[in-house]
Design goal:
Blueprint: E1 4-7, E2 10-12, E3 18-24, E4 31-39, E5 46-52, E6 55-58, E7 66-71, E8 76-81, E9 90-98, E10 103-105, E11 109-113
Parallel strand pairs: 2-11
Antiparallel strand pairs: 1-3, 3-8, 4-5, 4-9, 5-6, 7-8, 9-10, 9-11
């Protein structure tokens, strides 16, 4: 069973930055897809940034502001978020899929952008 633990969320002012981390219980080299999703109150969960199949994709709303990366040595996935806006406020979830197409989710970390 894979366990994912997110951290790094919090309260930040508009224009500020945060870095989210997602630590996996095992080697992340077993995952062919990794990414971050978010869900704001009253809205559906949406993909923010995905690494998979040798490519990286971002939601249009975060392009140029967010950067996803992975550190295989630390078994950790990151999301660097810059120039944060109030509309980025949401619970952020780490997601991974292994080569057997099994999906796993973290418990979520709250990001609140407010002055």
């Amino acid at each position: 069973q894979v366990q994912l633990v997110e951290s790094g969320g919090g309260l930040v002012q508009p224009g500020g930055s945060l870095r989210l981390s997602c630590a996996a219980s095992g080697s992340i080299s077993m995952f062919n897809t990794m990414g971050w999703y978010r869900q704001a109150p009253g809205k559906q969960r949406e993909a923010v940034a995905i690494i998979g199949g040798g490519s990286t994709t971002y939601a249009d709303s975060v392009k140029g502001r967010f950067t996803i990366s992975r550190d295989n040595a630390k078994n950790t996935l990151y999301l660097q978020m810059n120039s944060l806006k109030s509309e980025d406020t949401a619970a952020y979830y780490c997601y991974v899929r292994n080569f057997a197409y099994e999906n796993y989710w973290g418990q979520g970390t709250q990001v609140t952008v407010s002055s």
